[in-house]
What we know:
The chain has 188 residues and is an alpha+beta fold. The protein has five helices and nine strands. The protein binds manganese (II) ion (MN).
Amino acid sequence: WMQELAGHLAHTLRTLRAQRGWSLTQAAEYTGVSKAMLGQIERGESSPTVATLWKIATGFNVAFSAFLEASPAQQQATLHRYGDLPVYDQDNADMRVVPLFPYDRQLGFDMFVIDLAPGALSESSPHEPGVIEHVIVISGRLELAIDGEWHSLAAGEAMRFQADRPHAYRNASSQTVRIHDLIHYPQS
Ligand code: MN
């Protein structure tokens, strides 16, 4: 993601500077960002901070969003059916994890439909710092442990938690439990 963004930034900055007919020295003057830094960005060698990007946008008098690439998923409404995308854990009969949407790099989230068979227990090791899960029970009753504390969620109930700690999903009932799991990753 950062690699693509750097490429997009480089292209956008080069294009803007050519349109204005500015030298690097002039661009540095108008933006307050050093020539060296501007050069690095134009060569795709640097991922500037948000503050630096704002200076450049302001100096060139363009919107901040001019530097951000819109993801195709956002531009067009797309119908996603359950089972359209490759399934994970297919060999694990107790738990089935099916992505509903492809990973969205810009929004930084995954969304899964998860089915837990009766008696299923799935323990998840801590994810990266900053990862947040949103668990929504669609049908059945889910037991959800966060940091060793168990919660019981009925259909229609949901829980949002910091997933950078141990957590587990359990189906203590005699019927299959279906949940949606929306996982948000912090932008790196
Ligand atoms: Mn997890």
